[in-house]
Amino acid sequence: MQLEEAVKENLDLLDVDSLITHHFAPGIYTRQMFIPAGCIATGKIHRYEVMNIVVSGTVRVNTDDGMKELTGPVVFNSAPGTKKAVLAITDVIWMNVHPTESTDLEEIENHFIVPSIEALEQEQCKWLGAW
Q: Which stretches of the chain are assigned E, i.e. beta strand?
C-alpha cells in the first residue's frame, strides 16, 4: 500500500484502463494487462486465491514465496489477500484468471476484489462467527 501511494504521489500515472483487455469463455474471465518496460504496477487485493500468468516479458514481483524475477511464460497462484507489486523489466503481458459465468465487469470486481486487507479480515471473521 505504501508503494502504491508513493507511486501515485511521485510518478506520472498511465491510463490503466487502456492497458487492460478482458476475455470471456464459458465459466472463465481473464483479465489481461500490458505493463510497459520500466513501469511499476500494483495489483488489487483478491478475495480468493488467483491464478497469475506472465505470458511474456520479465518482471520482479512479490509472491507468496518472496520477491522473484520471473520471465514468461510462467504461471503461479497467489493467496487471498495478496497485493502484488510488479516492476516490469521488459514489456510484459500479465493475466489473472477467475472462475465466473458473469460478463459484468462491475459484478466480477465486486465478487473477487476487496478494498483493503482489513475488509477481507472482517469478512473472514464474520464467516468464522467471530464478530
A: 20-25, 28-35, 40-42, 45-46, 50-56, 58-63, 66-71, 74-78, 85-88, 92-99, 113-114
